[in-house]
Amino acid sequence: DAKTTQPPSMDCAEGRAANLPCNHSTISGNEYVYWYRQIHSQGPQYIIHGLKNNETNEMASLIITEDRKSSTLILPHATLRDTAVYYCIVRVGTNAGKSTFGDGTTLTVKP
Amino acid sequence: GAVVSQHPSWVICKSGTSVKIECRSLDFQATTMFWYRQFPKQSLMLMATSNEGSKATYEQGVEKDKFLINHASLTLSTLTVTSAHPEDSSFYICSARDGNFEGSPLHFGNGTRLTVT
Asked: Nearest-CA neighbor of B49 among B29, B84, B79?
């Protein structure tokens, strides 16, 4: 799996958009970008994923650069409950694809 | 949405005893499940890949005789920590892939907090 690089921590004001970057410069053509988050003492929660195109769901938007070497997770209106560790994972899309977790970004949403 | 249930959510056991943790996919079938371990203030570490009907695949450095994995059905995988010791105290998390389509994401259980006294 390709390695990812994320900033260790970020702050965001409540109600504002949170933009979390991820660098995956060694990504291969068949590898997807996945975002998960982990709230303290819980299992990770799936947020969104994509291959080439930008994606949006009810939780967030995922912007992938054209060369696919980086991506940004956007939480459009952050709330206090969005405070968590956010993990950017790159892996192949087949069933054999294992997910390797780095240290993630600790997002703190402040009132 | 896809739900992965893990049981128990926490367990305390004495040193030398064995503990079984269950991971169930509630509304989908999973031929493959993954087991992770997480120590305080650290990231998730993949321990093993559980394969339905065949042997699990363990990551380097994980003792297969200590962490027994059984994946007897398409909705259930179990992790048994044998002869547990205090250093096995950790947060154990399982995951399963929802769907067989290309790129389908993993869904995680809520974890099991194991404390060995």
From this structure: B79
Strands A9-13 and A105-110: parallel
A32 vs A66, B29, B101, CA distance in Å? 14, 22, 13
- For the stretch B12-63, pLDDT in tens is 999 999 999 999 999 888 888 999 999 998 999 999 999 888 899 999 999 9
CA B56 to mean position of chain CA atoms? 11
Question: Among positive and negative, which fits the CA dihedral A50, A54, A59, A60?
Answer: positive
pLDDT tens-digit readout, B38-52 = 999 899 999 999 988
Picking from A94, A5, A99, the residue whose alpha carbon sits closest to that of residue A43 is A99
| pLDDT confidence bin for A96, thresholds 50/70/90 | low
pLDDT digit string (tens) for A79-95?
999 999 999 999 887 75
Surface of B (62-81) touching A: CB under 8 A = none
For chain B, what's the residue count?
117
pLDDT exceeds 70 at position B115: yes
Helix (H, G, I), strand (E, B) or coil at B7: strand
Contact A51 B103 (CB under 8 A): yes
Does the distance separating the beta carbons of B34 and A99 come in below 8 Å?
Answer: yes
Residues near A108 by Cβ (< 8 Å), separated by ≥ 6? A9, A10, A11, A12, A83
